[in-house]
Amino acid sequence: MLMSRAHQNLYNTLSRLLATVAMLLVMSVGAVAQEDESRNAVQRTGAISGRVVNENGQPVPHAAIFLGAPMNPMQGRSTSTDDNGNFMVGGLDASLYTISASAPTYFINPRDPESLPSYYRLGDVVTLNLIKGGVITGAVVSATGEPLVQASVRAIMVRDANGKSPTAGRFAIERQTDDRGVYRLYGLPTGTYVVAAGGRSPYGYANNAYDTDVPTYAPSSARETAAEVDVRGGEETSVDIRYRGDSGHTVSGLVSGPIAQNSNTNITLAQIVNGIPLYTSVSFQPFNRKGFAFYGVADGEYDLVAQSYFGRGESIGSEPRRIAVKGADLTGIELVVRELASIRGRLVLEPSTAVECRNKRQPLLTETVLAVRRNEKNTPKEQLSLSNYFAQAVPNPAGEFVLSNISPGLFKLNTRFFAKYWYLRSMVRTVPGATTSRTGPVNRQADVARNGINLKFGERISGITVTLAAGAASLRGAVKLAEGEPLPARLYLYLVPAEKENAEDVLRFLTTAVQGDGKFAFNNLPPGRYWVLVRQAESELQSDATLRALDAEETRLKIRRAAEAGKVEVELKPCQNLIDYQLPSKIWSQKN
After folding, report:
1. Which of 86, 127, 434, 498 has fewest C-beta within 10 Å?
2. Residues of the chain below pLDDT 50
3. CATH class in words for 249-339
4. How far apart are CA 475 and CA 452, in angstroms?
5. Which of helix, strand or coil describes residue 545?
6. 557-566: buried (b, 16+ CB within 10 Å) or exposed (e) per residue?
7. Helix, strand or coil for residue 323?
8. Angle at 68 between CA 65 and CA 74, to 5 degrees
């Protein structure tokens, strides 16, 4: 049977969505591949293998594996684990890959949103960790107690495991009721949810008697008075819903602007709760039609955003349009799509003159990724519904790179490379300054690592220089414990620049977790003098990315003051491998 154009449009959109989710939600808790100096010969083809385990270290058989190639989408592959949780994907070209795993009833632990995905190369062996999800189950009945059959039921996360609200709209986990009116939502990540029945599916493909109704939230409420449900991994919670059957409203309009003739336009409708986009649904404007519509919309505030994809991998989008639905349909809305932003720059490799650094392998450009991610905390709430908050690229043989299709906002630039004796020295932007009669234009350099890059619609940013320098050191050791002394939970070791001239260099602030046996390890360290601090972190995981975040200046200041007061210093020479470095347990301090 041939697909209708609407169903074909939906299939293409969901395919793009799944590929994007697989790329962005690479959640490997296993060790990220480190540079092995024995890899002197560049592999042209090869394989990546690995294993999928649960939180108890047991294998997860028949888990779905998706291997993505962000820089070469045609290299994307899928496979599954065997009875022992093992997998291997062969016949791969030399490139960087991302890997994700999924299995029924499991979820993959979200990574630090400030960090890049984990990238893998030929020959790597990967461990992926899945966590048993929670379950919400119950029955949906009508006002007279009759079971509702094939009604859509969805769980919408309102706070994650750390008690934080989402920073952008998301698609809910959804199932339909059976002939008894019973539903079962499984594989839910730990967090707090509201549960809703009825209304159109967020993906727009459902077609049943409840499509045009306003969703009823458990126990029998509108969104404002919905009961919140705490979900924990491996646990089951029962939530029944008495369906109200309230009729919803229609939101419709037109997308205009430079829309590609052979491209469909996606429109997302994100419900705004307490100023945050919480729940997202999708509609479409096919290329041969004019107009879009959402049905079953409840009273409340929403953000509308349109986006159109081109065959060349390019896209355009509209600014979010805040609307309010109050007791009636809302029609005649116009969304104007515009060009998105881009960033151009150059990667520079700076050699070292140190004798110890001779003949050390330099990073391969084909195994180096430049990426930007929007800083959600610094993004105005009215801009949070915009997609295109992440972009990545590999530099060409001349070191030049282009990051395109980026939405407006404040972005953090990151780089990932594989070379043991190299480190990230600087990320700057050359900005034209004022012109004088004597000297002409006076350029200045902005510290992109510290300040980020602020983008507007259609803006073309250039003059970015990312410098990787030879001479990186490594540091391995352990926190010494007295006999029988327990190691505090969530213990991290921090390195803080001791030289005054580097006190504000965010790239010289580094951290790593102290393992259960007290051991720790750093790689790709800039040479120099550091204050050493060991302290407990708050509930969130710590990383170099969170320590260098655009809004972490106060955190860095507190850590630097504590490290300076501790007066424990280490000096690292170019290309030095300092091993068995011992720290007394008494140097660690509480987070306050």
Report:
1. 434
2. 1-36, 38-40, 589-592
3. mainly beta
4. 29
5. helix
6. eebbebbeeb
7. strand
8. 120
Entry pTM:
0.81
Contact 248, 300 (CB under 8 A): no
Query: Which architecture does CATH list for 474-589?
Result: Sandwich (2.60)
Q: How many CB atoms are located within 10 Å of the residue 548 CB?
A: 22
CA 301 to chain centre: 26
**Which CATH architecture does the domain made up of 341-470 adopt?**
Sandwich (2.60)
Q: Are 502 and 551 in contact, with CB atoms under 8 Å apart?
A: no
HSE toward the beta carbon, residue 198, CA cutoff 13 A: 30
Would strands 491-497 and 440-441 be described as parallel, antiparallel, or unpaired?
Answer: unpaired
Look up residue 373 and give its amino acid.
R
User: If one looks up domain 5-132 in CATH, what number appears?
Assistant: 2.60.40.1120
Q: Give tens-digit pLDDT for 484-518.
A: 777 788 889 999 999 999 999 999 999 999 998 88
Q: What is the DSSP letter of 208?
A: S
The domains spanning 341-470 and 474-589 adopt the same CATH topology: yes
Residue 514: CB atoms within 10 A of its CB come to 21
Query: Is 253 in a helix, a strand, or coil?
Result: strand
Residue 59: the pLDDT is 96
Residue 492 CB coordination number (10 Å): 21
- Domain boundaries, given as residue ranges, for the chain: 5-132, 134-242, 249-339, 341-470, 474-589
Question: Phi and psi for 590 in degrees, rounded to 5?
Answer: -65, 160
Q: d(Cα 137, Cα 175) in Å, to the nearest integer?
A: 10
CA–CA–CA angle 269, 197, 25 (5° rounding): 55
Give the pair of three-digit tokens for residue 420.
């043991």
- Cα torsion angle, 217, 221, 222, 224, sign: negative
Residue pair 360/37 in contact (Cβ under 8 Å)? The answer is: yes
Q: Which H helix or E strand runs over 533?
A: strand 528-536
